[in-house]
Each structure stands twice: as structure tokens, then as C-alpha cells.
LRAT domain-containing protein
Amino acid sequence: TTPTLLSKNPEPGDLIEISRGGYQHWAVYVGDGYVVHLTAACGSSPNGLSSPPNKKALVKKEKLQDAVGTDEWKVNNILDKKYRPRPVDVIVREACAREGQELPYGIATRNCEHFATELRYGKAESQQVGNHETVTYVGHRLACLSCWLARCQGTKKKEDKATH
């Protein structure tokens, strides 16, 4: 199956919300079909995004289609009514400059939504974390494990193709 497009074509600087079952993953659209987002660092433990000792995540730039996979997604500039977005060139430049960086990760303070909103607004906020009825610790740990396995499996397949 292909991902369902829930909105029009994204513009550089837009926030992309990807529905992943019990949680939303967030990315920043930087143009030419690419997004920058905070992902599980392969090589760390599968719990690396939510429990010590490996509270690290990797900033990755990849095609929107690859980041989304078969999940539904939409443009959702979630805090535009609360904050004025920063200039698009600043959002895109700062997002791309962070590619490849390993950053601290915390479920309540530094998740992928915090990362994306900080780039767009200069304010790191997460609506998911504020809604405790929807996002639970156990659900997030399972989502992180699933994401980590999918990302590392994808990396392994790319490595296998490159060696054959």
C-alpha cells in the first residue's frame, strides 16, 4: 500500500505529521521531496529513545516517501495560531545543518515533535506529551522499539543491496 496524502503538497518549512498507530512522528519539510527528522540511532539499544543509558537520537534527512513508508501523513503546522513561524530560509538551513547530529532524547522534553516545532517556531513544544490520555509510557516504548527495528532493518537492506 502507498501512504495516504491528507493534504496538499508541503512547502519548505512545513511540519509533517506522520500517523504511526498510537503516536505521531514529526518531520520538517525542507524542499525537493526531503524531510529532516529525529530518529532512533541504529546501533543503540532498541529502548534508546526512552530509557537510559542511551538517551540519544539521530537527525536524519531523507525523502518524505521513505520517512513516511506506508503510514498516513499530513502537513500540520500545529502551533501557527500560537507562534509566528520563523523565516523559511532559517528553518530549512537550520534543519539541514543538523543532519547527522546525535542529539539527546527524552520522551517528555526532547522528542521528534519538540525537534520539529523548535525548528519551525524557535520553541520546542509537544502537544502529544501534554495529552497524557493518548500517549502513554508503555505505548511510546513499543512505538520506539517498532521504529528502531524498522529503521535498522531498512539500513540493513540498503547495506545488503550495496554489497551485492
